[in-house]
Amino acid sequence: MTKIGFITPGPDPAEQKSVGRVWSRLEDALAAEFDLVRYPGDRPATAETPAWREFLDGVEAVVVPHPVRADRPAAAPKPFLHLALGSLPIGALRFLRMLAGLSSADSILVSCRADRVILDRVFPRREIGVSFLPFGVDLDVFRPRGAAARAATRAAYRLDPADRVLVYAGRVTRPKNIHLLLDMLAELKPEFPAIRLAVAGGPDPLDPEAAAYRAALDARVRELRLEDAVRYTGPLDDAPLAQLLSAADMFVTATVNRDENFGFAAVEAMACGLPAVGTDWGGLKDTIAPGETGFLMTTRITDSDVGVDVPAGVAAVRRLLADESLRRDMAERALARVRERYGLDSFRRHAARAVREAIDRAAGMGEAIPGTRFELHPLAMESLIYSQLGLERNWYGRIPGFAAEDARVRRFFMEPYATGSAPR
Fold first, then answer.
1. 304-327: buried (b, 16+ CB within 10 Å) or exposed (e) per residue?
2. What's CA 333's distance to the chain center, in Å?
3. What is the pLDDT of residues 194-221, one digit of tens each?
4. What is the C-alpha to C-alpha distance for residues 345 and 414, in angstroms, rounded to an integer?
5. Are 251 and 266 in contact (CB under 8 A)?
6. Cα gap 268→299, rounded to integer Å
7. Per-residue confidence (pLDDT) for residue 410, from 0 to 100
8. Which residue in 26, 218, 276, 307 is deepest, having the highest Cβ count within 10 Å?
9. The pLDDT value given to residue 76
């Protein structure tokens, strides 16, 4: 069996729950396909370290959570596979800051097509490999429930059997645009008095605006007189979240979050048999099939923000609420799509393919080119310079809000996530 190196990351309080879940599932997937040799990420990776030399000599490829500084022989390139995660739309700094840790023998694993486009922009000569690795969800947990379970879950959240329940699941932060969901709810409520919105999630502990945003949402609920229509569940573990999703009628999200490189919540909802109404943004552009498993709202990059076509979202929810046959058909298609593409078995197959592709690619090249010799697009270089000068621009942060001088750079990196750009 082929031996593959796996560098285990140390605990990082800045990482989201989904990041740890991806890394754990990737480890399990690779262990099922290869002889996995683990190396602690907090140990030195230099030629002077016997353990590192022994580790590197004994494997065909190495999977790492992010670029690492490591001594690697250029004459016999050994591929490292790096996870992109949510780093690319915000300047690709995870990779630009660590060019010395990259090699042309390497591959970057992306979970959405938009990330591939960003990498093609950053590295116009495509010196580094790129492999598509859509993530997977646990279909034993996220699955439709029967009528009795649905009724019990609705009762637990003070939802009546006749209520038309929309669910949002994810962090309660401004880039997730929950305030836009409230506006959609208010517009639809006169036509559908029994409409309800369940918000399953909590604040990002690293978001300094979390408390202020939640207060703004509460004020908006009162202003729109939606007190009887909104339920906050707080953060939910997978099992209770799956129960809530299975008791709902559809999933909704208006996110333009910078690291929406897959969108676990939408896929988990579809696995529970829900159609999804979301933004045409990042990974959702891949996972939600518009007109088949749900609908997508157009998104546009401007010099100062990301615009969302909220009226289109209202129209989509209205169609699904007014046409039960359509809702059921889309729910069935959503469930079939997830079972075909996004289960853990599919994730394991994609991961194994990516590793084998990287090994074959490296075997076909001569001396590897170090990342410091990669050609960078001028705007990628500008992003790196900002970072090296310590100019942490607003657009690198979690909260949308961009300075005028950043417009060219942020359009360059974020346009692939959106439907398109508004004219300047």
1. eebbbbbebbbbbbeebbeeeeeb
2. 22
3. 999 999 999 988 888 899 999 999 999 9
4. 31
5. yes
6. 23
7. 80
8. 276
9. 64
Quick one: three-class SS letters along the chain? CCEEEEEECCCCCCCCHHHHHHHHHHHHHHHHHCEEEEEECCCCCCCCCHHHHHHHHCCCEEEECCCCCCCCCCCCCCCEEEECCCCCCCCCHHHHCCHHHCECCCEEEECCHHHHHHHHHHCCCCCCEEEECCCCECCCCCCCCCHHHHHHHHHHCCCCCCCEEEEEECCCCHHHCHHHHHHHHHHHCCCCCCEEEEEECCCCCCCCCHHHHHHHHHHHHHHCCCCCCEEECCCCCHHHHHHHHHCCCEEECCCCCCCCCCCHHHHHHHHCCCCEEEECCCCHHHHCCECCCEEEECEEECCCCEEECHHHHHHHHHHHHHCHHHHHHHHHHHHHHHHHHCEHHHHHHHHHHHHHHHHHHHHCCCCCCEHHHCCCCHHHHHHHHHHHCCCCCHHHCCCCCCCHHHHHHHHHHHHHHCCEECCC
Spatial strand order in the sheet of 230-232? 230-232, 195-200, 164-169, 250-252, 276-279, 294-297
pLDDT at 402: 45
Torsion angle of C-alpha atoms 341, 307, 114, 369, degrees rounded to 10: -150
Q: How many residues does the chain have?
A: 424
pLDDT for the residue 403: 54
The answer to whether 128 touches 116, Cβ cutoff 8 Å, is no
Question: What's the pLDDT tens digit per position in 304-320?
Answer: 789 999 999 999 999 99
Per-residue pLDDT, 10? 63
> For the chain, which residues score pLDDT lower than 50?
13-14, 394-402
Q: Tell me, yes or no, if the pTM score tops 0.90.
A: yes
